[in-house]
Write a structure and sequence with these properties.
heterodimer; A: about 260 residues; alpha/beta; Rossmann fold; 9-stranded mixed beta sheet; B: alpha+beta; Uridine Diphospho-n-acetylenolpyruvylglucosamine Reductase, domain 3; 5-stranded antiparallel beta sheet
């Protein structure tokens, strides 16, 4: 069984600079980390491998050469392989161009049974790359997966969570899953694996190696989305004082928690 | 010694000082103010006063001293040894409303605060301007006044020391209401006896801290932790001195064991990452650059795996990873409390080379007394937090077993040159053990000091000695 897990390098904090002309994030390798949702995607991949020891996991990412650091992290956490798809012509890609590029890479890898993505990234936040890759590849997908329940020869059974309900679905392979944060605690990068992988060379794939070599399908050229403005979300804190007896306070607190969907 | 009971006239006086709203008379005092976090010691005050400035405290003390009224100071009430419990009644002097940060002096790198400022507020305030107050006791909602009064320690003690090392100056109201200033913004001070240091750790028995000047340093920009599994407790703990000797200086070395970890995991409903092992060390490094921290991490990882028998070394570098590991460590006390009906604690500190032997002894004692004794500890500084759990024991059995058990635990610690308390203080609960530790001569010296500061013994009576 071949598993491909898509991961991404994202800014480590929300204090990021934006190119005033293109509206694209200026990425700083000193302020970068593995997308937190991808930790769960990797953990889900490892849980499949634990149930099916013959499985191999390949972590892939699209990004500049320094995005190799998140691939190394994935290797130290436990993936068998890692591939970087990188090209200056990929720069400025939106959801569509990113999904297309990754789907091209997955086609190049070939014979993939399960593609696993984090639910979304913490920089783009669209949660669309996973499903769009599935569309480009013509495979079924299930989003918001929180648990892999069963792995059979040609299908798997997974549990997904939605705002109103949970769902258990059986899905035919090959397929794509996007993974929601769950009670699983993602494992940590291991020093022993780091030593073991010391001489491992991460494969680098460029546009010229992909099946579709038309540069208009990639990067800013292949991106119909026009970004007008990017800004970090406000982290302004609002305080509200409630006065009254214990009953009133409890009632008001309940109301506020309920209104803000904490209950 | 009998103290004056508070009568109507006294109540009127106190109201005239702090106002009607800040005076809570006996019949209205909430049960929370009759005990501390641990709830093993209880006692109601006759009156609960919220003070707002040092002049009010001076007036209250002057009056209490003249009228022989006992005064117990309280901050957030997060102590664990009953130090803020008014066992002799009298005034409960509550400093929680004195929570102003008075001055940030960036040139002298000091922060002047009122005693009721919370530890978490100090950390947030200074870190916003890239400065750092290093003491890191687990209870972040404690007040700085309480931290100073117990000389609180915390996890970063190996590298940064304890609260004492971060207090430059104190303003104190004495038992007779006089206001005095010890230390200041100065870095060095060889001018006579250090009364400032005498105040630190005196648990409200020598004076009332009304203002503190704290030392700050530049904020270390990078912090990384390592979760290091070992086959068993002994291997993990025996690695600690070698790690400290290994030419890297960790900020913290905590010890986690599967048997205690499970309480945290159940309490949080979350598992520790890579939680399949018997024992762990959780080590942190900080520094001003990523390169310097990475170097330390590399050196200690190599040492642990290749020389100290560690199964692996796991990197805890991002916010998410730190949260997943440190929340399990941080929840220990709450998790152990939630696992039983009542706990009592032992906060011994012993030389770090004796921890293994001491924990073996604790396990034997647990079997011998048939009582559950989970624990965790700051392996780097030898300070262990050991908890007796009441579970289904009857009240009589509980009292009996804790009395026998604690006596044995402390006697064993003293054999190794250990001390009763590493960071929680003596308060009311541990007085007998302090006497066992220091002996009559030192107790007499302490009594002499107490008498000089507080001749009428009105400040937090029956505490410490």
């Amino acid at each position: 069984m071949k598993i491909v897990t898509c991961i991404k390098q994202v800014p480590a904090s929300s204090n990021v600079e934006v190119d005033p002309v293109t509206g694209v994030l200026i990425r700083d390798s000193n302020n970068a980390k593995l997308n937190p949702y991808d930790l769960y995607a990797l953990e889900a991949s490892f849980s499949i491998k634990e149930k099916n020891p013959n499985a191999t996991i390949t972590a892939i990412t699209m990004g500049p050469p320094n995005a190799k650091s998140v691939l190394k992290e994935a290797l130290y956490m436990g993936t068998d392989e890692a591939v970087l798809v990188t090209d200056r012509r990929f720069a400025g890609a939106d959801v569509l161009a990113t999904s297309y590029t990754l789907s091209q890479l997955i086609k190049l890898i070939g014979e993939v049974d399960i593609i696993i993505c984090g639910k979304q990234t913490t920089d783009g936040d669209t949660a669309q790359v996973g499903p769009e890759i599935a569309e480009f590849l013509g495979v079924p997908h299930i989003p918001y997966v929180i648990e892999i329940l069963e792995i059979l020869d040609d299908k798997i059974v997974v549990k997904s969570t939605y705002d109103t309900h949970d769902e258990i679905n059986e899905i035919k392979l090959p397929c794509l899953l996007t993974i929601e944060k769950s009670n699983l605690t993602p494992r940590l990068p291991s020093y022993k694996r780091k030593i073991k992988m010391k001489n491992y060379q991460i494969d680098t794939v460029t546009l010229d190696q992909l099946n579709d070599k038309n540069p208009k399908h990639y990067g800013l050229n292949g991106s119909p989305t026009q970004v007008e403005e990017i800004f970090p979300p406000s982290n302004e804190m609002k305080s509200k004082f409630i006065e009254g007896n214990k009953e009133t306070l409890a009632h008001e607190l309940y109301k506020i928690l309920d209104e803000n969907k904490f209950l | 010694m009998a103290y004056k009971s508070i009568d109507k006239e006294d109540v009127l006086f106190f109201k005239s000082i702090v106002g009607e709203k800040c005076t809570i008379e006996k019949s209205n005092i909430e049960v929370d103010f009759s005990h501390d976090e641990l709830q093993t010691i209880s006692g109601y005050p006759d009156i609960h006063l919220y003070v707002n400035d040092k002049l009010q405290i001076q007036n209250i003390m002057k009056y209490a001293n003249q009228h022989n009224i006992a005064v117990t100071v309280r901050g957030s009430g997060t102590g664990l040894v009953g130090a803020c419990v008014p066992v002799n009644g009298g005034v409960l002097l509550d400093t929680s409303q004195m929570h102003k940060i008075l001055e940030l002096d960036k040139d002298n790198m000091t922060l002047r605060v009122e005693p009721g400022v919370l530890l978490m507020d100090i950390a947030n305030y200074v870190e916003k301007v890239d400065l750092f107050y290093a003491p890191d006791p687990g209870e972040k909602s404690a007040t700085i006044g309480g931290n100073i009064s117990t000389n609180a320690g915390g996890m970063r003690a190996i590298k940064y020391g304890v609260t004492r090392d971060w207090v430059r100056g104190l303003e104190v109201v004495l038992a007779n209401g006089e206001l005095v200033s010890f230390g200041g913004k100065v870095v060095k001070n060889s001018s006579g006896y250090s009364l400032k240091d005498l105040m630190i750790g005196s648990e409200g028995t020598l004076g009332i801290i009304v203002e503190a000047t704290l030392k700050l340093i530049p904020l270390p920009k990078e912090t990384v932790s390592l979760l290091i599994p070992f086959e068993n407790r002994t291997n993990a703990i025996d690695a600690v001195p070698k790690i400290i000797n290994g030419h890297t200086l960790p900020t913290a070395i905590e010890f986690l064991e599967k048997s205690s970890l499970k309480f945290s995991e159940e309490y949080l409903g979350k598992k520790l990452p890579n939680d399949d092992y018997e024992a762990y060390l959780l080590i942190s490094y900080d520094g001003s650059t990523k390169d310097s921290v990475d170097y330390d991490v590399e050196v200690v990882s190599d040492l642990c795996v290749n020389q100290l028998g560690a199964i692996d070394v796991y990197l805890v570098d991002t916010e998410e990873r730190k949260k997943s590991v440190w929340s399990a460590r941080g929840a220990f006390l709450e998790a152990i409390k939630a696992s039983t009906s009542l706990i009592d604690e032992c906060d011994v500190v012993i030389p770090r080379t004796n921890i293994t032997e001491y924990l073996d002894f604790t396990h034997q004692l647990s079997e011998e007394l048939e009582i559950r004794i989970p624990y965790f500890g700051h392996a780097g500084d030898g300070n262990l937090h050991i908890y007796f759990c009441k579970d289904n024991l009857s009240d009589d059995d509980w009292l009996n077993k804790t009395n026998i058990g604690f006596k044995k635990m402390y006697d064993k610690a003293f054999e190794f040159g250990g001390k009763v308390s590493g960071e929680h203080g003596i308060g009311y609960a541990k007085r007998a053990y302090l006497k066992d530790q220091v002996g009559d001569i030192q107790v007499e010296l302490m009594k002499g000091i107490k008498k000089t500061f507080d001749p009428n013994n009105i400040l937090n009576p029956n505490k410490v000695i």
